[in-house]
Design goal:
167 residues; alpha/beta; Leucine Aminopeptidase, subunit E, domain 1; six-stranded mixed sheet
């Protein structure tokens, strides 16, 4: 089980081998954390994403990190579920995002990974439920990743993630 740290910050400046972006199926970039990562990594990120797209909800795919600063070497793109009330498998799809991202990190031999709170922005997943799913999935997933940093964009998300680590 990797060590899990919860921080408030900018995922594009994390000191990790790989960062995860909450992508859309096209992997061309979008809003929120995905837009921030695409701006920081430069236009080659969208070109590389387009070359491997589409990415189905719950899956994950990797590209180089391009203009992101070392040690970040990879961007892992994962597509979260759009919240439709919870009766359409959203929780399992979200858990799959974390499991698949860790599996891709293992394939890349990444030992440290930073995650955002996947699907809690425009996709509308309730942040309290998403935090519990994120932490419980990371804890229960077999991986060679040694350190996971959960990077919250705001204080309320940071508090939810931190609370989920103490259950």
């Amino acid at each position: 089980m990797p060590a899990i740290e919860v921080v408030l910050g900018d995922i594009t400046s994390e000191n990790v081998d790989a960062i995860v972006t909450a992508a859309n199926e096209s992997l061309l970039g979008g809003g929120g954390v995905d837009g921030a990562i695409h701006r920081a990594a430069g236009p080659r990120l969208a070109e590389a994403g387009a070359a491997i797209a589409p990415c189905e909800p719950g899956n994950a795919m990797a590209t180089p990190a391009f203009d992101l600063h070392p040690p970040i070497r990879h961007v892992i793109h994962t597509v979260g579920p759009v919240w439709e009330g919870g009766g359409y498998g959203e929780a399992e799809i979200l858990a799959s995002c974390y499991r698949r991202s860790l599996a891709v990190a293992d394939e890349l031999r990444a030992r440290s990974v930073a995650f955002p709170a996947i699907a809690t922005g425009v996709y509308g997943f309730p942040p309290d439920q998403a935090a519990k799913i994120a932490i419980s999935t990371i804890i229960s997933t077999r991986t060679d990743v040694e350190k996971v940093r959960m990077v919250a964009f705001d204080e309320s998300t940071r508090r939810l993630l931190a609370a989920a680590t103490h259950r």
